[in-house]
Amino acid sequence: xxxxxxxxxxxxxxxxxxxxxxxxxxxxxxxxxxxxxxxxxxxxxxxxxxxxxxxxxxxxxxxxxxxxxxxxxxxxxxxxxxxxxxxxxxxxxxxxxxxxxxxxxxxxxxxxxxxxxxxxxxxxxxxxxxxxxxxxxxxxxxxxxxxxxxxxxxxxxxxxxxxxxxxxxxxxxxxxxxxxxxxxxxxxxxxxxxxxxxxxxxxxxxxxxxxxxxxxxxxxxxxxxxxxxxxxxxxxxxxxxxxxxxxxxxxxxxxxxxxxxxxxxxxxxxxxxxxxxxxxxxxxxxxxxxxxxxxxxxxxxxxxxxxxxxxxxx
Length: 314
Fold this sequence. Notes:
Layout: E1 6-11, E2 16-22, H1 27-36, E3 39-42, E4 44-45, E5 50-56, E6 71-72, E7 80-83, E8 88-96, E9 101-102, E10 104-108, H2 113-130, E11 135-140, H3 157-173, H4 179-185, H5 200-226, H6 231-251, H7 255-266, H8 274-298
Antiparallel strand pairs: 1-2, 1-11, 2-10, 3-11, 4-5, 5-8, 6-9, 7-8, 7-10
Helix pairs in contact: 3-8, 5-6, 5-8, 6-7
């Protein structure tokens, strides 16, 4: 990849567009993003680390592409772009407190930093207070916007049909919140989950299970397969890691996820190649990461507004 690749990141609802140049710090990761363009995604905001935007990018290759260069996110300039194995495109726009090593791929042009900061404030308000979704559009500079979710083939016909359904459902909820999560967040929980009729407790546990299911379980299984873990071990690890959280999430109302998981686990013995295994797990990862993004957006964070950080004396 040469150094002249420029992208535009737009938030049409905000009337803000910023430009960024991809660079050579992590060229393979930058190429993953470039190849996925154009796309649209629900814009999220960091809830712990500080002034940081991120969204899920529809690029399976981000799950496993190695990084050549890492930095402490706190030390780099505002406007730095990152890609991660969580399938995120992230943008720092102010102070960060989390000492996390991250993989930079580019930089917002200097004259657009003010617009980036404005977008960051608006997105925070969306995630924390209003719950009105803000959609990011990422495209190659000078080219039209668009959207596509990649579809990976699987040799086994039955599993291929399942993954076609997972792909279709991911596409259906990519820019629109899934009804199951809307029902859950409005207290409509058929199983009765939530002790003493509470809802917030259930929402908290759903958030705590959904994110690692996509980030760690399915993303980790993709990387394990690419590292050459034997198929019997991969099948066993999948059963150990995926079943319990998915079953719990089904009990909490995410029936579609639980149905997909059961059918995937039932078909594991028919997966006899690492390539097919990777395709199945990559689609499950993208679906779970999409669910996680919507759950973070819908969660009533303002319920804890009375809890504020206190200064800590050195």
